[in-house]
Amino acid sequence: MGTGELTGFLAGLCVAVLPMLAAGFWLGRRTARQRSLGGLGTPVEHATFETLHTASLAAPPLRAGLTEETARKSARRLRTLLGTDALCLTDDQAVLAWDGVGEHHRAEITERLLGPLETGRGEAFRLKCDEPDCPLRWAVVAPLTVDDRVHGALVACAPGESAVLVRAAGEVARWVSVQLELADLDRSRTRLIEAEIKALRAQISPHFIFNSLAVIASFVRTDPERARELLLEFADFTRYSFRRHGDFTTLADELHAIEHYLALVRARFGERLSVTLQIAPEVLPVALPFLCLQPLVENAVKHGLEGKAVTAGGKSHISITAQDAGAEALVVIEDDGVGMDPALLRRILAGEGSPSGGIGLCNVDERLRQVYGDDHGLVIETAVGAGMKITARLPKYQPGVHSGGRLPRE
Fold first, then answer.
1. Could you give the maximum distance between any two Cα atoms of the chain, in Å?
2. What dihedral angle (degrees, nearest 10) is formed by the CA atoms of 240, 243, 249, 250?
């Protein structure tokens, strides 16, 4: 099952669980004092609305994983969801956050966690308390599991034993587990994209570094000043390519790195390569995934210029344009090279072709889709002998996407 299918399954599970939460919430609240329904319909409809609203408020912290901070932020919402006097969230060792009365029961709860955490099965037990003013006499432990591994527990405390509370706590724990599993998927996606960036760097580096150093070495004796300039271009480009801060950059910075790259390519191929840049100033601040456009330019060089190397005096032209298109920046990279068989291109974008068939195309396409959605993948027009035109649509404003920022969370 792919990441998209698994996320859809989990979302469906959330939808299936919430009606049960609503039923449990209503049963737990049905004896409470009457409230004004505020035009929301029947008491059941009102309770369902409150349940869904409370669950929506508890979800965001949990999507960051199970920590002391996220447990503290979500515990109050979860206690409201269950209508209990106290509720705590634990990891696999200790209580992370306690909301409500009777916090002196922390040590006792911690001691009783061992069994449920080992077996993955819920448990209800009587609390020992010598304080006459403490209303807590009973606790229900519901494990929190992700991928069949127990990460912690949700513990609901009440004045007395209740079968409704046992069931409701179990359902809420299942819902919390789904949020933690989605958080785990987010972390996996982050690691995947970071691995793809590292792989892209590794893919570009050997080919580019070897040729660049060879060109610089060729100028050392004949034109030392030219060799020094190229060495600075090489240093600036590699410093940008291997930077470690953030996953996003600006269009201006990416184009600046491309200029360093093209300076080294021109030194190698001389007049055989001509480049035209048309950049609208208003799109320069637009944020985009780091190392997103440079691989496309390198692809144009490889299939535009290097593909003509067998022809004596073969020349190539590459054009790079970035235009303001309302809510988006429209970036087009076009070459007049040898082009590509569309069938081969489809295999490359599907991850089935040889890496030499299209440097970084699959990588960039996947990253754009992951960040902006499937409708923002690369649009590529090509045919054998007809060159290649690559279009990237970059939204000017996307939640979580900003220069120097980390990967966006869903």
1. 97
2. -30
Segment 262-272, tens digit of pLDDT: 888 888 888 88
d(CA 34, CA 132): 29
Q: Write down how long the chain is.
A: 410
Tell me the C-alpha distance between 214 and 314, whole Å. 21
**Rounded to 5 degrees, what are φ and ψ at 354?**
-75, 140
pLDDT level of residue 215 (50, 70, 90 thresholds): confident
Note the pLDDT tens digit of each residue in 275-323. Answer: 999 999 999 999 998 888 988 998 888 777 665 654 445 678 899 999 9
Alpha-carbon gap, residue 135 to 149, rounded angstroms? 33
| Partners of residue 338 on adjacent β-strands | none
Encoding tokens for residue 6?
């698994």
Q: Which residues contact 213 (CB under 8 A, 6 or more apart)?
A: 234
Q: How many whole angstroms separate alpha carbon 272 and alpha carbon 56? A: 60
Strand partners, 275: 318
pTM greater than 0.85 (yes/no):
no
Tokens in use for 42? 């029947």
* CA quadruple 402, 275, 208, 216: dihedral sign: negative
